[in-house]
């Protein structure tokens, strides 16, 4: 897929997230206030944070598509992973704020939520699950950490809306059956929402940081690349191959051994062929090849 086409698809997904979450945040905040539901208000804050997260993803995608330059010879692909880290930080802050708000609610008079709050939570579950499935499939297709992180923001909103719906439902039942203690199910649901958000923030942040810190693919993942190189004429041995993830693409550093008695030009041609074959893979952005002289006697390259 061409970089510009990839960016257009990703941008479309980001805008769907921005407008969808903005609408949900406003609707849930208004209904949560009118319907007197702490859980739904917490859920509205969660959706509002998703708007900021989608904006961060949009900027990350825009930066990632920039071509390599003098200061960034490996390209800007890690901008997407950085955007995913920003999403994780935002989620963490929101989780802390909702935790504080929900705990405080236990020490104040609790009023029963209205039935409309239950309906809003149900609609939110339906819409956010659709947004998750759409964004997750898009992120996988485009190999984008940022979009996948954004998708899991939507999934966490599904869980939080479900918890809010349960809490609101129990609180309404408490009013109907004259059981005041059940009214605290609403702020309790808000606390559960906060815990789920914090867990999601941790998972997204850990994975994104792992990718950002020059993570290399594991042996089983680089075997297809090695098989390609072994079939290049003139390659005697692969001394090392490191495939580093830079967001949605891979940079390969490889050392191969060739016949020590061929000319420098011939060795250079073999290196160019190695690079050309690897560059045909859709996820490979660049390849750096080092040529070593091969030693027949001990099957290793000459130091």
Short description:
With 303 residues, the protein is of the alpha+beta class. The protein has eight helices and four strands; from the N terminus they run αααααααββαββ.
Biggest sheet features: 4 strands, mixed
Shape call: elongated
CATH top level label of the largest domain? Mainly Alpha
Taking all Cα atoms into account, the compactness measure Rg is: 26 Å
> How many beta-strand elements?
4
Which spans have pLDDT < 50 for at least 5 consecutive residues?
none
CATH architecture grouping of the largest domain: Up-down Bundle
Oligomer: single chain
Per the CATH scheme, the topology name of the largest domain is Alpha-lytic protease prodomain-like
Strand content: 5-15%
* Global structural class: alpha+beta
Q: CA-to-CA gap between the ends?
A: 41 Å
Listing every helix as H and every strand as E from the N terminus to the C terminus, the arrangement reads HHHHHHHEEHEE
Helix run count: 8
CATH superfamily of the largest domain: Cation efflux protein transmembrane domain
State mean pLDDT (0 to 100 scale): 81
Please characterize this protein's 3D structure:
- This protein has 303 residues and is α+β, with helices and mostly antiparallel strands.
- The protein has two domains: 3-212, Up-down Bundle (Alpha-lytic protease prodomain-like), CATH 1.20.1510; 219-301, Alpha-Beta Plaits (2-Layer Sandwich), CATH 3.30.70.1350.
- The protein is 67% helix and 11% strand.
- It has eight helices and four strands; from the N terminus they run H-H-H-H-H-H-H-E-E-H-E-E.
- The protein has a four-stranded mixed beta sheet with strand order 1-2-3-4, with helices on both faces.
- Helix 4 (115-142) packs antiparallel against helix 5 (145-176).
- The two termini are 41 Å apart.
- The mean pLDDT is 81.
